[in-house]
Amino acid sequence: MSPPRVAYILLWFPLSSETFVFREVVQLMQQGMPIHIYTLYGAALKGCSEEMRRFSGPLTRMGLKAAGHVLAAFFREFRRRPRAVWKLMREGLFRRMRGLETLGENSWCFLAGFYLAELCRRDGMELMHSPWSNGPGTAAWIASRLTGIPFALTGRAGDIYPPDGVLAEKLRDSLFVRTNNNANVRYLAEQCPPGQGDKVRLIYNSLTLNRRGESAVSMRPPYKLLAVGRFARTKGFDVLLTAMARLQREGFPFRLTLIGDGWQHWRLHSLKQRLRLETVVDMPGFVPHDQIVRHMLTHDMLLVPSVVHETGDRDGIPNVIMEALSNRLPVIATDVCGIGEVIRDGETGLLVPQRDPRALAVAVRRMAGDRAAAGRMADNGRALVERMFDGETNIRALRDLYVSCYGAWKEARRNDDRS
Predict the structure, then answer these.
(1) Which pLDDT does position 417 carry in this prediction?
(2) φ, ψ of residue 360 in degrees (nearest 5)
(3) What is the DSSP string of 318-374?
(4) β-strand 177-179 against 127-130: which pairing, if any?
(5) Complete DSSP assignment for 125-166
(6) How far is the C-alpha of 234 from the C-alpha of 237, rounded, in Å?
(7) Start-to-end Cα distance in the chain
(8) Cα 248 to the chain's mean position, in Å?
(9) Taking the alpha carbons of 85, 91, 94, 98 in that order, is the dihedral positive or negative?
(10) Mean pLDDT over residues 295-320, rounded?
(11) Alpha carbon of 304 to those of 236, 246, 282, 370: distances in Å?
(12) What residues contact 291, with CB distance under 8 A and at least 6 apart?
């Protein structure tokens, strides 16, 4: 069966922090999947690689410039079917959300869903897919309800933890729900209505770096430590800096390179100064994704101190873990969500409890003190991620999921029409 024409619905595309989504789209298109990207916000190309900037596939952006079209589409539908629109508003708009940011995003995406419905009809889309289950998932859900075009979701991390006010309805009405780690399979199945848990499917992400090498893992003092990620509440970089202060007090020779930026920028820089880490911690800011490899090849280990925020927000499996292991860089990480599916303690890396600076410092000493064991774990980790996150295998599985689920839906519709 030929693949359906798929609408990929996102807030932004491409986005520097979502290289895995970009790689997914590109590889699906290379597999012959006809994809049209619809973004609910405008362009955000800062930090994107040249490859991302050169993307030339079908792409329609909304954002503020489309506000008039969005409102006009909403009122057109309201005049045509006022009762149906009021029902949608009761289900999807007047719901308690987990914060003001989520409320604002969901409200815009709810309204944008009306314009998205018109665009998808115009462009002949046959299936909608949102790679995130929060705001973009809301827009896909609304557009599907208005058009009858089926939609699917991917649930990853902060988009499902904690669930937003309409996640249950989106899961209920979706054709299928894809997730990229096994921990989420159980969680999302529990969020689905009774009897629908089997619609949750596990397909891991693909490795995102085109260029890979091999870390030397020299393990000579001063030991070169690396951490990479958004400066966000789930990354645990405050715990990381506290662990570095402990190592400094103990006289352990090291230098940490902490790459990233975000809304916790000033907080982390202030903590670095307060802990007197200026001579041992470098914070170069944001580094484009295609330049991360050179850092991985010149450091001794990667530290991933992810935490579960008090709201329930958390990482899934940070892609930087797979990228590091694919470059044979040893990894120390916290046992949060799906991380333990990749970092198997003592086999493919070291796992430590979250929010425990002492345990993190002890693990750094352990990794640095046994170069042979570090190299063995890195070798095992590379073999594991090349198997679990193989691009050809996982993209084929994702393409097959689209084709089979859409084919089954279409056949069911034919049978309903006959009866």
Answers:
(1) 79
(2) -65, -45
(3) -HHHHHHHHTT--EEEE--TTGGGT--BTTTBEEE-TT-HHHHHHHHHHHHT-HHHH
(4) unpaired
(5) --EEEESSSSHHHHHHHHHHHHH---EEEEE-STTTSS--TT
(6) 9
(7) 24
(8) 34
(9) negative
(10) 94
(11) 8, 17, 16, 19
(12) none
Q: How far apart are CA 378 and CA 370, in angstroms?
A: 12
**Average pLDDT score over residue span 275-286:** 96
- Ramachandran region, residue 5 (left: φ > 0; alpha: ψ -120 to 50; beta: rest): beta
Alpha carbons within 13 angstroms on the beta-carbon side of residue 390 total: 9
Say which residue the tokens 């920028």 belong to.
Answer: 265
Give the least confident one: 25-39, 202-216, 390-404: 202-216
Q: pLDDT by residue (tens digit) across 243-256?
A: 999 999 999 999 99
Contact 33, 396 (CB under 8 A): no
C-alpha–C-alpha distance, residues 233 and 153, integer Å: 24
DSSP 15-48: -TT-HHHHHHHHHHHHTT--EEEEESS----TT-
Per the listing, tokens 């998932």 go with 137
Q: Tokens standing for 103?
A: 């409320």
- The first and second tokens of residue 82, run together, are 């006022």
For residue 153 the two structure tokens come to 């979701």
Q: Are 174 and 153 in contact (CB under 8 A)?
A: yes
> How high is the pLDDT of residue 289?
82
Using alpha carbons only, give the angle 40, 19, 204 rounded to the nearest 5 degrees: 105
Long-range CB pairs of 63-69, under 8 A, 24+ apart, other chains included: 63/39, 66/112, 66/115, 69/115
For residue 308, which phi and psi values (nearest 5 degrees)? -95, 120
Rg (CA), the chain: 23
Residue recorded with tokens 């973004």? 39
pLDDT of residue 211: 61
Name the residue with tokens 């590091």. 324
Tokens of 263: 């809304």
Q: Within 10 Å of residue 81's Cβ, how many Cβ atoms?
A: 13
Q: φ and ψ at 228, to 5 degrees?
A: -140, 135
Q: What are phi and psi of 6, to 5 degrees?
A: -110, 130
Taking 90 as the threshold, does the pLDDT of residue 209 lie above it? no
Q: What distance lies between CA 397 and its chain's CA centroid?
A: 18
- Helix count (H) and strand count (E) of the chain? 15, 13
Give the three-class secondary structure for 284. strand
